[in-house]
Specification:
The protein is α/β, with parallel strands linked by helices and 537 residues long. The chain is 32% helix and 20% strand. The longest helix is centred in the middle third of the chain and has 16 residues, at 244-259. It is elongated.
Length: 537
């Protein structure tokens, strides 16, 4: 088992920044404003060769009333009680404040090793604050910079010294837990529901809307099964989310949905299946996660049976792609109906992980196509060949068919709904893909087409066709006249012996000379007789 280390201090001294650095991920939300962290958060991290279980806490406030700050202080004190070593962080730029002194007095009562950290010590202005830290009574402070990673070697040495007398019990690694994300709109009762399930006030709750900002993971065991509950921030409509911190909270919630296996959508019974609830449920279906509906504050409902029937009808009408998802009505405040939630969650997880035999799938495919054959596209019937399941979580199937790319969407919906009904998979998101042999994988845009090669302008440009008149216009005057004469008159093969034509070359024609008389000429117009003209007298 790793060493439990709690990071504590007043607000806005860099506790979450150090938490993220030791964990190696940006798990905790970080912002310039104070009081971003409200709940205590656990995560596994390390420094050097030392494994740590880190506890990020809220900024300490010296308040004891019923306000939100007082409840945050109680969460911080619970983290201190659970830790083996305490990292007390102060701001070296601002020096020791009165709140630091009050918190130091509180920590001196703990019978646990405390390491004083002077954060933000990367600049020259922080030297005076590091000197003031000696007055807190925890020995020499460790100067670090959580933002830039400076002083981590000194922090490692201090942790090794502080944990020398601490016995760390070795325990077996637990089985992989089922990850369950609790989502919904603000003030729907998500944190109260988790506290009711685990039986303790683990998460910060109250009448204020939007208390939870980070996605807090809580490990729990239910009937021998390891469970990891993830409490998320309430999600409002996208148009209403303007502040940077709320955008970070929404992004953290979406990430929790992505890594969850079962998602519980908590809705207020009076405003159930509002636009935001429908969008959240559709997001869960698109991510391929198992879904469970929860109607909270059910102890205030006057007509529970009629209202339950109405809500189930609304769920099937507005979300037909998730028809048959389990629906649980409960009251997290009074505990009424909470015992029905976990059986519904485990049942949804079991269906989400189902695997269907290939033989049963093909028997079902034969009956489904006989009952409703595939439609004809462009006058040709589409023939289904066989079907197989490629993976579970969610169940994913592949249908092989001739000309499968032309299978219409309505027929795919028919097959998907038929799978859900025939194999008893209510509310489970099903993925169905179709593969066929009609598509050419090497065609443009195909699976094996690859990037298109650039052939250049010289090769791709169309070849210019030059007209015959343009070619003849470049000839000299005498050659042009002979060209026209040769083209205009047909060739006459007569009065010439075969032997003479062979001796003269290719075929010859009879052409009259200027003074009469026949002369043998070749294609080029030259006289082939070999006689010279007599000089003119």
């Amino acid at each position: 088992m790793a060493l439990k280390v709690a990071i504590v201090g007043r607000p806005n001294v860099g506790k979450s920044t150090l938490f993220n650095r030791l964990v190696g991920k940006r798990l905790a939300l970080v912002d310039d404003r104070p009081g971003v962290t409200r709940d205590r958060r656990y995560a596994d991290g390390n420094i050097g060769d030392m494994d740590l279980t880190l506890i990020d806490t809220a900024g300490y406030e010296d308040v004891t009333d019923d306000s939100l700050e007082s409840r945050m202080r109680e969460q911080t004190e619970a983290g201190i009680e659970d830790a083996d070593v305490i990292l007390f962080m102060m701001d070296a730029r601002e020096g020791v404040t009165s709140l630091d002194e009050i918190f130091a007095e509180r920590l001196r009562r703990q019978d646990k090793p405390v390491i004083l950290l002077a954060n933000k010590s990367e600049s020259r202005e922080s030297g005076g604050g590091v000197g003031e830290a000696y007055s807190l009574g925890f020995g020499e402070p460790v100067a670090i910079s959580a933002e830039h990673g400076e002083g981590m070697a000194d922090l490692y040495a201090a942790l090794v010294t502080a944990s020398a007398d601490i016995f760390i019990e070795e325990i077996d690694e637990p089985d992989k837990p089922i990850r369950i994300a609790i989502i919904g709109r603000p003030n729907a009762g998500k944190s109260t529901l988790i506290n009711r399930l685990i039986g303790e006030d683990r998460l910060l709750t109250g009448p204020e809307a939007g208390i939870t900002r980070d996605s807090i993971s809580v490990d729990w065991e239910y009937e021998g099964q390891n469970i990891r509950l993830v409490d998320t921030a309430g999600m409002r409509r996208k148009a209403r989310v303007q502040e940077k911190l709320e955008k970070l909270s929404v992004a953290d919630t979406i990430r929790a949905i992505t890594f969850a296996e079962v998602v519980v959508v908590v809705m207020d019974k009076d405003n159930a299946f509002d636009v935001q609830d429908l969008q959240l449920a559709d997001l869960v279906e698109r991510e391929g996660r198992a879904l469970v509906y929860v109607a909270s504050k059910w102890d205030l409902e006057e007509n529970p049976q009629a209202r339950m029937a109405e809500l189930k009808r609304m769920a099937d009408d507005k979300l037909p792609q998730l028809k048959g998802s389990p629906f649980v009505a409960l009251s997290a405040h009074s505990g009424r109906g909470v015992e029905r939630l976990m059986p519904a969650v485990l049942k949804a997880h079991e269906l989400w992980s189902v695997k269907v035999k290939t033989k049963d799938l093909n028997d079902w495919l034969s009956m489904a196509t006989q009952r409703h054959p595939p439609p004809a596209v462009d006058g040709k019937r589409i023939k289904t060949k066989y079907m197989a399941q490629t993976k579970a979580r969610p169940p994913t199937f592949v249908l092989f068919a001739s000309r499968g790319g032309n299978l219409p969407d309505h027929y795919l919906r028919y097959l998907t709904n038929s799978i859900r009904e025939s194999f008893d998979l209510p509310g489970v998101p099903i993925r169905l893909t179709v593969k066929g042999g009609s598509e050419n994988p090497y065609a443009a845009g195909g699976a094996k087409s690859g990037p298109e090669r650039y052939k250049g302008d010289a090769k791709t440009a169309p070849r210019k066709v030059r007209k015959k008149e343009e070619e003849e216009s470049h000839l000299p005057g005498k050659a042009l006249e002979q060209k026209k004469t040769r083209v205009a008159k047909p060739r006459v093969i007569s009065g010439v012996k075969a032997s003479s034509s062979k001796k003269a070359g290719s075929s010859v024609a009879i052409q009259k000379g200027a003074r009469g008389g026949a002369r043998q000429v070749s294609r080029s117009g030259r006289i082939r007789t070999g006689q010279k003209h007599a000089p003119k007298k």
